[in-house]
Inverse folding.
């Protein structure tokens, strides 16, 4: 056992002195000769490079100093002798990424991509178009950041991950992105040449076909064998990722390719990027869909991931208003304004019985959706029918429909709207108007029910979910905000009038998504001058608490509101239900389902990572705490408000 050293007199508790001289003579270190060589080899730190003008927050080019006691002596710095490298394979990889518009790279350090890391910070960040390196604390966070960034910005971002174990860490976030139809790039370092694996770890962290680990839940992958191959795969991968249905791409990056010298002017050409036109519904099928919708007495539109862009939301609005049809937004994206009178998302049980035609736009699960609409004719427009794999069952149970159009819904909507307008006869307009007015009443009734439900327990402690939600809206309603994560309660009463107001669900229901993806969403909102609001669970925050440090380090304007009910409450309810069926009572169901003894103070945790944090237990203190936190976020810094809340 190692004995503790006394800080005052330099002696161990037993009285034996272990000063610097005795340490250097210690036989356990191989004697003085063993340490003398590396110590002599250490040079003074070089002066930091001159940084070009940059908007990067808290970007430091200071070389990390060596200890005055030369504590890092055993890790000799790279030799300075020999020819200097002017450009490298990883510089070329950065340019290939730039050709695809990728400007954000998130990573935790890993030796299999050390050359790409160096190229990002000393080439990509200092030349135009400028890139940004984001420092994270877990590979899953890197991928989830790219996920959240795309859902706000519509642009892919990248993650660098270490070979084998790094990709293993990243898998759940990749699966979420795959299920959520989100394009992003994951670059995996690899050492393909066995002769150059010089340590046991090189072998442990190498897989000849590393991307095979995630092949069943990515859109495409490749491990290029040359720089020319990499350039082509980068462009090809971008085209695949950005053609509906969208999806993530994984590229294995060989260390030899990354580190190879590329003489000036001799880098391979990067192919020109030409995106594919999106798949549009066949004209005859679109006309048939229009006839079915116009002939219906009570048509209903159900949308999940229909709005890929702001235009998609406008098109869904136009289709609904033309038909005067109710819209159920399943929340994969913001497909429809939350307070539009035709929004019947929370009145589904009222409209379902009378619906005689349902059109599903990019539905994840038509089978579950169709159950309340058993008597209605069914139309599907879904790009997922164009790309499907077998192992992971995210495609859900098969649903029979009357008309199936395998195409991108957003790209098909202009044709469908035009066909509907042509089909609308004069005698159909009056009934349609009356139908719309009735749906507006259903919308208002649903809002009133929510208001009444949320008023119950308003002054209670722990704090009610209704008060936690509405007190926050009262503070941010006049700001330009975006709600990140999948927490959907605000959609009941908040004003969601833009596509960026909510990020929607995770896709694969992978745990820890809200906190991690919210970092990427906050980055995208920051670029547009908005603030990000992340309403997250306490269990979710404990999956990746390091997001708070990254938010502080990168100065991301995000407010984390922690719904802290001290439990994985959904799972607690499940176990309680099973115990009840077995007549065993619920007294022991908290075991393994609660976070108590001790309770977690997320406000204090935030402060330890340089983030403004408060913990609120009294509902009367909630509004003021929100205002203080929002003021911090508006200044460009992150904040955390830990709300001790009711279970539901």
């Amino acid at each position: 056992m190692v004995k503790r050293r006394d800080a005052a007199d330099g002696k161990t508790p037993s009285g034996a002195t272990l000063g610097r001289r005795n340490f250097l003579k210690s036989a356990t270190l191989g004697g003085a000769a063993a340490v003398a060589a590396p110590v002599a080899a250490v040079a003074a730190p070089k002066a930091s490079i001159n940084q070009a003008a940059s908007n990067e927050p808290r970007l430091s080019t200071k070389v990390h100093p060596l200890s005055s006691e030369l504590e890092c002596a055993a890790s000799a710095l790279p030799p300075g002798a020999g020819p200097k490298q002017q450009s490298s394979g990883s510089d070329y990889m950065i340019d290939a990424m730039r050709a695809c518009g990728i400007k954000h790279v998130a990573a935790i350090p890993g030796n299999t991509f050390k050359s790409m890391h160096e190229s990002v910070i000393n080439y990509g960040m200092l030349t135009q178009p400028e890139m940004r390196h984001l420092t994270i604390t877990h590979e899953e966070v890197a991928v989830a950041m790219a996920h959240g960034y795309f859902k706000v910005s519509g642009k892919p971002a990248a993650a660098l991950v270490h070979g084998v174990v790094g990709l293993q860490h990243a898998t759940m976030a990749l699966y979420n992105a795959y299920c959520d139809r989100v394009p992003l790039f994951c670059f995996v370092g690899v050492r393909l040449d066995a002769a150059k694996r010089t340590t046991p770890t090189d072998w442990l962290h190498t897989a000849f076909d590393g991307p095979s680990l995630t092949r069943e839940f990515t859109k495409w992958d490749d491990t290029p064998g040359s720089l020319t191959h990499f350039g082509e795969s980068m462009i090809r991968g971008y085209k695949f990722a950005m053609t509906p249905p969208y999806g993530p791409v994984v590229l294995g990056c060989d260390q030899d390719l990354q580190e190879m010298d590329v003489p000036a002017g001799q880098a391979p050409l990067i192919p020109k990027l030409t995106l594919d036109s999106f798949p549009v519904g066949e004209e005859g099928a679109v006309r048939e869909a229009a006839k079915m919708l116009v002939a219906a007495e009570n048509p209903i539109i159900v949308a999940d991931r229909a709005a890929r862009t702001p235009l998609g939301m406008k098109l869904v609005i136009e289709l609904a208003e033309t038909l005067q049809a109710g819209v159920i937004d399943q929340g994969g994206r913001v497909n429809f304004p939350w307070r539009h009178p035709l929004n019947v998302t929370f009145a589904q049980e009222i409209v379902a019985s009378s619906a005689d035609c349902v059109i599903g736009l990019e539905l994840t699960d038509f089978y579950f959706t169709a159950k309340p609409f058993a008597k209605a004719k069914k139309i599907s427009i879904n790009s997922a029918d164009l790309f499907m794999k077998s192992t992971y069952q995210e495609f859900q149970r098969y649903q029979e429909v009357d008309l199936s159009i395998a195409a991108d819904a957003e790209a098909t909507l202009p044709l469908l709207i035009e066909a509907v307008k042509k089909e609308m006869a004069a005698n159909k307009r009056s009934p349609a108007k009356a139908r719309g007015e009735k749906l507006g009443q259903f919308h208002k009734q649903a809002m009133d029910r929510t208001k009444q439900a949320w008023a119950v327990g308003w002054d209670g402690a722990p704090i009610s979910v209704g008060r936690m939600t509405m007190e926050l809206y009262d503070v941010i309603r006049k700001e330009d905000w975006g709600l990140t994560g999948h927490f959907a309660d605000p959609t009941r009463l908040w004003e969601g009038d833009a596509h960026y107001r909510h990020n929607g669900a995770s896709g694969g229901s992978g745990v820890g998504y809200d906190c991690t993806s919210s970092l990427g969403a906050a980055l995208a909102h920051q670029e547009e001058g908005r603030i990000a609001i992340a309403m997250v669970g306490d269990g979710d925050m404990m999956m990746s608490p390091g997001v708070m440090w990254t938010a502080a380090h990168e100065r991301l304007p995000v407010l984390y509101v922690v719904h802290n009910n001290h439990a994985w409450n959904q799972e607690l309810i499940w176990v309680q239900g099973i115990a009840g069926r077995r007549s065993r009572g619920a007294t022991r169901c908290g075991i393994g389902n609660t976070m108590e003894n001790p309770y977690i103070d997320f406000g204090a945790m935030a402060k330890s990572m340089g983030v403004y944090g408060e913990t609120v237990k009294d509902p009367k203190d909630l509004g003021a705490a929100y205002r203080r936190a929002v003021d911090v976020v508006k200044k460009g810094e992150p904040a955390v408000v830990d709300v001790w809340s009711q279970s539901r």
